[in-house]
Amino acid sequence: MTTYAPKVSNAWNLFTYFMFGTAAVMMAGGIWSLDASFSAKGYYAMSALMLVYTTASITKVLRDKEESDRIYNKIEDAKTERLLAEASRDEY
């Protein structure tokens, strides 16, 4: 029982990295040109970095959970198939 796992293209990876870089430059430029004190700019910069970090962490946690659920389901399917095979063998 194999499942299809779609591959992500290199073009999509490059686009994603490019968009991340663009967003980071735009955020840094916005904070730099902000008419505020240095401490306020630092607060906004730290908040932006924390937002990026937590977004990556949430994405990783969700992906890890999905992969562990998939592995658990494969194990359960294998156990069920083994039990069914044993039950059908006992019938004959």
TrEMBL record:
Coiled coil: none
Domain of life: Bacteria
Spans traversing the lipid bilayer: 12-32, 44-62
Listed GO CC annotations: plasma membrane
GO biological process: DNA damage response
Keyword RNA-binding listed: no
YiaAB two helix domain residues: 12-64
Classification via InterPro entries: YiaA-like (IPR038972), YiaAB (IPR008024)
Alphabetized UniProt keyword annotations: Membrane, Transmembrane, Transmembrane helix
Pfam families: YiaAB
Protein name per Swiss-Prot or TrEMBL: YiaA/B two helix domain protein
Species of origin: Tropicibacter naphthalenivorans
